[in-house]
């Protein structure tokens, strides 16, 4: 059906569409028809045009205990078109191209107005199975059973409903398969370097883990003007990929002989890296990232230079 005709005829009404539903932990997703309710005040209904898979989706798909909850519609990296809006929504209108985000941005609280925080106090982040303002779902299956939300996005469906605080309008010319990544991994990595660490021009950066987030950190550091960007990973092929994102050096922990990675980096840099990022999520690597931070003045404790890349652009 033509999307424009669907929008004009479905505004304010439930939409019947297809979704990939996670019924049980670890079992294959089930493609089925569902009902998506119209948006409530401060909500937006979005036609998803492209979505990607994040490892967080897999983690929650496998969870047998809360916050794993089923049946659920997973997915939180996406791009879509606004199909309709609820009352009190002025930021976007029907037809706008948007990215749904799992981090809220009310734009009103002190933290949203601050350049030093991206953690909204009005709508704090939590792993909720419902919409943030109403604690209810907008999804049901054809038998009337409630289908739970995931990270306030749920993009493994043709249509979803998202709170306006979790919606960002973007340029429609951006390639959808690239833009959908901005909802999670890319903003996490780039934002960690750019907004949280505020990487300085001419500095040296060390990145532990060169997955999508680690590579995004490299890109953020490059954009900030870092002169030397050192990548640490057990997969040597990541270095060639990483060069496209600004990596200048590579350390393979398996080839450090009897030295720790932090020792190698300290020797490479003549005292340590100016900024260190841990992008894997292992306590041992966090310790290594901290250990290879360059010692700075009393005013700036070295721990302020080691970052677990959990920041975002917003």
UniProtKB/TrEMBL annotation:
Membrane-spanning intervals of the chain: none
InterPro entries according to UniProt: ADH-like_C, ADH-like_N, ADH_Zn_CS, GroES-like_sf, NAD(P)-bd_dom_sf
Biological process annotations from GO: formaldehyde catabolic process
Keyword Zinc: yes
GO cellular component: cytosol
A Gene Ontology molecular function term of the record: zinc ion binding
Keywords: Metal-binding, NAD, Oxidoreductase, Zinc
Cofactors that this protein relies on: Zn(2+)
Domain Alcohol dehydrogenase-like C-terminal: 213-295
Segments forming domain Alcohol dehydrogenase-like N-terminal: 41-170
Family: Belongs to the zinc-containing alcohol dehydrogenase family. Class-IV subfamily.
PANTHER family for the chain: ALCOHOL DEHYDROGENASE, ALCOHOL DEHYDROGENASE-LIKE 7
Subunit structure: Homodimer.
Protein name as catalogued: Alcohol dehydrogenase-like 7
Gene: LOC110746652
